[in-house]
Amino acid sequence: MKRIVFKVGSSVLTETTNIANERMLNLVSLIVEARKKYEVILVSSGAVAAGYTAVQLNRSIPESKKVLASVGQSVLMSSYKNKFDIFDVTISQILLTEEDFDSRVHTEIFQDIIDRTLRNDILPIVNENDISTTPDQLFGDNDQLSAHVAYYTGADMLIILSDIDGYYDSNPKDNPKAQIKKIVTQIKEEELNQEHTPNSKFATGGIVTKLKAAQYIMSKNREMFLCNGFDLTSAREFLIDGVHNKGTLFTSKQEKKEEEKKGKK
Ligand code: ADP
């Protein structure tokens, strides 16, 4: 069975100062469906934003942000639990830091936990443990964390669910004529060095961290699919029906390179 990692951003999971329950439920039902076909790991952001629903501390102060994350992690997990309970899916919480990828011993510990969790038909929900870490131990955004999780757990594909339909030739929020790229087989240095543009106040990444995640995934011969997390139609079509309508596929596979070339003619 193929293994896939979903990554969902804060913008999808939260709405002003609340958990976006309906969107979360849609995500949960997609994951339930996907689990019939794939082994699924979920990397979920949203702890700080969820914490803010309970207590409005100043998130620009690093220590207060950690308190928000510590409050929010349980808010987030209980929201997931309520919804996965409907489908009888057991979930587990796995908090990682960059250090977990530093040494082979650490990496083996979390690989083993993920493998055992999946073998027992449990859905692992991974987030960055930003509570006890120093800034240099942090990935800082779950895009890159999820790329590492995907690689080290031997996943075939990373699916990033964002507030945007895919990767465009320029920022569609500034340029209404921006064109979506269907297949990307190479990312240029200047694309990786552009300004960070997270779209909501709780988002940390923007498109650059997604491109860095894609670069990492492609260098490891895996694939990444970036698509809309508000409307899950393209994710469902791609994963369940095997049809690529919308969304951007990042891949270094030869046959896809040819498809990309044809698309450009
Ligand atoms: P999330 O919380 O889902 O991780 P982010 O706000 O961090 O989302 O990142 C997605 C945002 O990146 C988009 O909403 C868009 O404003 C911005 N962006 C900048 N350039 C591009 C581009 N070329 N293609 C797509 N999105 C872009």
From TrEMBL:
Binding site for substrate: S45, D130, N142
Subcellular localization, as worded in the UniProt entry: Cytoplasm
Domain of life: Bacteria
Keyword Cytoplasm: yes
Pfam families found in the cross-reference section: AA_kinase
One Gene Ontology cellular component annotation held by this UniProt entry: cytosol
GO molecular function per UniProt: ATP binding; glutamate 5-kinase activity
Database matches in SUPFAM superfamilies: Carbamate kinase-like (SSF53633)
Catalytic activity line of the entry: L-glutamate + ATP = L-glutamyl 5-phosphate + ADP
Enzyme Commission code: 2.7.2.11
Binding locations of ATP: K7, S162, D163, T204, G205, G206, I207, V208, T209, K210
Keywords, ordered alphabetically: Amino-acid biosynthesis, ATP-binding, Cytoplasm, Kinase, Nucleotide-binding, Proline biosynthesis, Transferase
HAMAP family: ProB (MF_00456)
Role summary: Catalyzes the transfer of a phosphate group to glutamate to form L-glutamate 5-phosphate.
Entry protein name: Glutamate 5-kinase
